[in-house]
What does this fold into?
Amino acid sequence: MREPIVIENLTKYYNKFLALDKLSLRVAEKENVGLLGPNGAGKSTTLKILCGLLRASSGTAYIDGINVAGKPEEALARIGAIVETPEFYSFLTPEETLGYLGRLRGMREDELRRRIKEVIELVRLEEWGTVKIEKFSRGMKQRLALAQALLHEPPVLILDEPALGLDPRGVVEFREIIEGVGREKTVFFASHQLVEVAQICNQVAIIDHGRLLAYDSIAALEKKYQSLEQAYLKLTGGYVE
Amino acid sequence: MSEFEKLRVVIKYEFLKHMRRRRLYVILGIALLAEALVLILIPVLRDGYPDNVMVMAAMLTVGPSLAAIGAIFFAGDAIAGEFEGKTGYMLFTNPVSRTILVIGKYLACLIAVALLIVFTYIIIAISLLVIYQEVPIEILTSFGLCLLYASAVLSLTFFFSAISKGSMGATVMTLLFVWVLSSIIESALAFTGNPYWFLISAGGDSITLPYGSITELMSGLGMGDFDGMLTNFEPLTIGMAAWGMVIYLVVGFLLSIWISKRRQLA
It folds into this structure.
């Protein structure tokens, strides 16, 4: 079984603060895995290391067998990512932004034009495609973030709170889009929203203080703890956000 | 996709950024205003233009010099802005190395500044042609030195942008370094008879050197020969100033790449 995402003994210190403590997990091909944990658990740190934005203090992260720290460009070519709430160049329009990112990824011009149209329609930004991003709300930027993550049809999606800042309708649309594309892709998805994770993912990894507390299918966790919420509460010893 | 093709893409979109930002036009406006003031004030204040075309050409370099300094305002946010504005979360998750990104940003800035400098030199050439019916060939050397100075200032700004948390901090630090600190040290060194070619402000001074030394230019404006005042003055040569600028250009640029590659986006 192929494992597009492999994390081995990942440790990350921010000065003396231990954010990740020998975290290890593997995500199988076309699995949709939710990464759950309270604030400061290490979710974003894990995703940022996978995206080459942070260097691990020790341990290794692999995308499709490629060491992200060793060959970042090769690894990043295989992923589409939304990390935190990304900002975009305000002087560009969504079409120009996607054109820039697509060309950086070496997409052919005809393919790029087709995909820009498709992803803009997918995230419902058709009317805003040629409007400068300086006029965009947070939710619209989040939609654009999803569009750029899907633009090059990557086999792996790494998403950090992708529905943050969206209105209720946007949240529902977002979940449907990710649920749809997730059938054909490997999705590693960090969220505080248990409902969202339950809808999109078939497996969850629960972490706290940088350590892996549980990694199992949602069905198995529900069987063991009655519900995903109970599993989260008992394992993290806290509250549901 | 080759690294060169990626570089071309980065330059294209970074240059588009400069063309769409107001600061390019503000800097151009300030540079042209400076040239216009020289053209208007000199004949008003001293009863006509100087007899020597070289003196007037040197006076007009205030325009391109300001355009070169304007590089600081283009480049201050080049690296720091990606971290401060969080656009790095979008840009750095693409399969393009930080080295290519920094080189592309640098070249786009340089093209934008070079355009400003070319424009201000065209105005100088036209002005001299109208007033003196001639354009000294030395204008080409001055233009080359101005481009070199802009490149060095850009490198320095990229260095400060790489080490700064914010764009404003990078811009202010570079301005203080180039305009205040370097100028003060240069004055102290020059007037005590010590070499100062290695200071970035000396690079700025060198832009007028093709038209004559500082004493020649001052004499040309009817300000005396300064023989008594400048006995200890260490003259600057074009060659030495150029070497100084090349050092800033290379060291600043390499350091900015090295720091950018190590910088993390937490």
User: Anything to note?
Assistant: DSSP finds 13 helices and no strands in chain B. Residues 16 and 108 of chain B are 9 Å apart (CA to CA).
